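User: My instructor asked us to take a sequence, write out its structure as tokens, and then describe one feature of it. I'm not sure where to start. Here is the sequence I was given:
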Amino acid sequence: MKKKLLLLFQVLVSLGLLAWLFGRKDLRGRFAEVITHAHSGWLLLGFLVAGFGIFLGIFRWGIILRMLGLEVSTRDLLRMGLVGLFFNSFLLGAIGGDAVKVLWLAGRGHRKALALMSVAMDRMSGVAALVFCSFLFMTPRLDWLRQSATVASLVQVIYGFVLALAGLLVLSLFLAAKELATRIPTGAPARAQLVEFELAYRQFLEHRRESWLAAGVSVSLTLLSAAA
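Assistant: Let's start with the prediction itself. The structure tokens for your sequence are:
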């Protein structure tokens, strides 16, 4: 109930902010000016690339749902993917769409732990792609990036952050492979939930083909986002 009330509050606040933004004549004028002076060809290409990226993201979530054994029709997958994207774009915070997906899956009789794990694995796949692309593009250009002291310091921070993310991903996969959750004493708080999360997480290791496919889609999405 609390989650639904929080979601309703986010919706109302977001709608209020949108109404305030688009109600301002100066912002509407600037938006119209940008659209009018934009090159139509590049604008169309940008829309096409962004649209293709949206459907790639939905396709990736579908791969993960199948990995977890959650049966969702293609129509529902597209519908909820687009609904989730809308809420992620217009709700306060970046996880509003994820919450909607979890609530929708749970409402269709799927276990909440698996529903939550599907969006978590979807996010993690994106993080892994971000780590890979960051190393791919930054490493060959380190000498050029270090020419400025300010940029060099920023690069060190980014590298540290990316390395930390990579370490957390590797550690989480290692812990899942060792099945540490099953060693927690019976009766411990949240043991059942941790075991279920671990079993779901291990799907990355047990379905390697699907995992690599999802990773490839994530890398493509990261590159498309940069291009768009």
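For the description part of your assignment, you could build on this observation: The chain has a mean pLDDT of 77. Try explaining in your own words what that tells you about the chain.
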